[in-house]
Prior knowledge:
The protein is an all-alpha fold. Helices cover 33% and strands 3% of the residues. The chain is built from three helices and two strands, in the order H-E-E-H-H. Strands 1-2 form a two-stranded antiparallel ribbon.
Amino acid sequence: MLLIEPEAAKAHEDLLTAKAAVVLVPTGTGTPPTGAPTPLPLTSGGTPPVVTGTGATPQPKAKSFYGSADINASTAKMRLVEIAGEIIAVLASDPNATVKISVEISADYPHGASDQIKRSVAENATNLNFKTKSWE
């Protein structure tokens, strides 16, 4: 995965936009070849007018991001901090963005969970405002 700072991305986008600008200069050498753009007349100052864009419609900007990751329980704290810093912070850096984060936890106990674990998890989930929490 390659991360680019927002300022560097903006500078690159501006560079690409500048390269897309086209200046057509009339050559005065007769009729342009078939399919060539018609030369533009010179302005009163003797300079050619500037035409921006290539005529192609720009690609629509992405409006949403969805992502999910499987995280090992033994490294969860480190990975969640890493995700918060490298993904969530970048997404939330735009003041117009609405960023929602969901955490899903699934734990299986082949021989059943102890009452102590069930009670502790249920109380902690309530204190941490989990929307859903259940044992099966």
